[in-house]
Amino acid sequence: MNTKLHIDIHSFSYKKKGYPKDNSDNGGGFCFDCRGILNPGRIEEYKIQTGKDIGVQNYLETQTEMPKFISLVENLVSISIDNYLSRGFSQLQINFGCTGGQHRSVYAAEKIFSFVKEKYPSTTVSVTHDEQPQLNF
């Protein structure tokens, strides 16, 4: 079996729509809760920004436990990606949720998107920011 693995990454809001639906029919994957990380959205200058804005990124990288969180997520998802590749699986969904789906979850989804693309070039990877439609790729 020579199936290409597609990794579907989402950021979402627990408060608004909740968990993203898994359309792969296998019901598997990860859902990481970013609400344990300090929220830059509570700081006035970051309220209208997202996790893709440099100010929010700098805050998350220097004022919170986000770098440690991302490192742990990279290690954890790598176990499954390696396994899925060796077994010929075709789908894996990785979700990141926070209160509003704007800062922490967007940042984490983008970081893991970049990590997966670099470490696993044989996969296809997509990222969707459920509460930030202008950021979808």
Give a short synopsis of this structure.
This protein is α/β, with parallel strands linked by helices.
Question: Could you describe the 3D structure shown?
Answer:
Helix 2 crosses helix 3 (104-119). The protein is globular, with a radius of gyration of 15 Å. The protein is an alpha/beta fold and 137 residues long. 35% of the residues lie in helices and 19% in strands. 34% of the residues are buried. It has one domain. It has helices spanning 54-63, 66-87, 104-119; strands at 6-13, 30-33, 91-98, 124-129.
The overall pLDDT, averaged over residues, is 90
What fraction of the residues are assigned to beta strands by DSSP? Answer: 15-25%
**Strand order in space, largest sheet:** 2-3-1-4
Please provide the count of β strands: 4
The helix content is: 25-40%
SSE topology sketch:
Blueprint: E1 6-13, E2 30-33, H1 54-63, H2 66-87, E3 91-98, H3 104-119, E4 124-129
Parallel strand pairs: 1-3, 1-4, 2-3
Helix pairs in contact: 2-3
Task: Please describe the structure with a list of short key phrases separated by commas or semicolons.
137 residues, alpha/beta, 4-stranded parallel beta sheet, 35% helix
